[in-house]
């Protein structure tokens, strides 16, 4: 099932720090996609927001890239690249966006809805213009507190916001994969390697059920 849906697809994955370290989604999700026959190129820029992917913006904490089965390449000076250029360079027919935590306004009294909307629509407009199928992966629960001051209430608000604002991309609600706090983190936001294995596997299961992915076959 997995292989038949994904075989031959050229997949571009872009996003924030969840794609920027060994053992994160840049490994766990990518390995499964490649095993199912997809060509995959991932670009992770730590601290990036969705709107950063319509231009070139330096990350705040490095990043990584990974092509196919090769090992990831860490880049301490990672920058985002315009999504339309990345789609063209990789001949991508499916884009997966992993962005959420960086626009949650964790630690602030209110969710920065207007700014978050501007961030999201900047990227979705460019994706729509490229006419490339896209899937947006929302944030996981994480654990409360830590240096990012993530809370379950805010991440739920953030995920609900993304679910209704990422069109034309399909939305994968990562909150449905676990109970609040079930997956351990190292800092409230970034999971342990076990958590990233679970998350990658659950994204994979959700992905192959999406009409936007199935219609390629």
Topology:
Elements: H1 2-6, E1 10-15, H2 25-35, E2 39-45, E3 63-67, E4 73-75, H3 83-90, E5 94-98, H4 113-130, E6 133-137, H5 152-165, E7 170-172, H6 193-207, H7 211-214
Parallel strand pairs: 1-2, 1-5, 5-6, 6-7
Antiparallel strand pairs: 2-3, 3-4
Protein name: Lysophospholipase L1-like esterase
InterPro entries: SGNH_hydro_sf
Organism: Paraburkholderia eburnea
Main structural class: alpha/beta
As laid out across the biggest beta sheet, the strand order is: 4-3-2-1-5-6-7
- In angstroms, what is the radius of gyration? 16 Å
Major sheet, described briefly?
7 strands, mixed
Poorly predicted runs are none
Query: According to CATH, what is the class?
Result: Alpha Beta
Number of individual domains: 1
Describe the structure.
The chain is α/β, with parallel strands linked by helices and 217 residues long. The protein has a single domain (2-212), classed as 3-Layer(aba) Sandwich (Rossmann fold), CATH 3.40.50.1110. Helices cover 35% and strands 16% of the residues. The protein is built from seven helices and seven strands. The chain has helices at 2-6, 25-35, 83-90, 113-130, 152-165, 193-207, 211-214; strands at residues 10-15, 39-45, 63-67, 73-75, 94-98, 133-137, 170-172. It has a seven-stranded mixed sheet with strand order 4-3-2-1-5-6-7, sandwiched between helices. The mean pLDDT is 95.
């Amino acid at each position: 099932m997995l292989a038949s849906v994904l075989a031959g697809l050229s997949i571009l994955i872009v996003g924030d720090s969840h794609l920027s370290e060994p053992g994160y989604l840049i490994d766990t999700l990518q390995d499964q996609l490649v095993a199912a026959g997809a060509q995959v190129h991932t670009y992770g820029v730590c601290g990036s927001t969705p709107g950063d992917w319509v231009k070139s913006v330096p990350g705040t904490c490095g990043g990584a890239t990974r092509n196919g089965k090769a090992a990831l390449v860490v880049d301490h000076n990672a920058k985002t690249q315009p999504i339309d250029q990345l789609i063209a360079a990789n001949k991508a027919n499916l884009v997966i966006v992993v962005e959420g935590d960086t626009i949650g306004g964790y630690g602030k009294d209110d969710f920065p809805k207007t700014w978050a909307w501007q961030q999201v629509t900047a990227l979705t407009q460019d994706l729509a213009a490229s006419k490339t199928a896209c899937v947006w992966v929302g944030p996981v629960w994480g654990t409360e507190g830590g240096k990012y001051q993530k809370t379950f209430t805010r991440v739920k608000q953030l995920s609900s916001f993304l679910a209704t604002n990422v069109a034309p991309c399909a939305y994968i609600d990562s909150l449905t994969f676990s109970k609040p706090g079930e997956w351990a983190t190292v800092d409230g936001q970034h999971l342990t390697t076990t958590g990233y294995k679970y998350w990658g596997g659950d994204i994979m299961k959700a992905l192959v059920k999406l009409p936007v992915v199935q219609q390629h076959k």
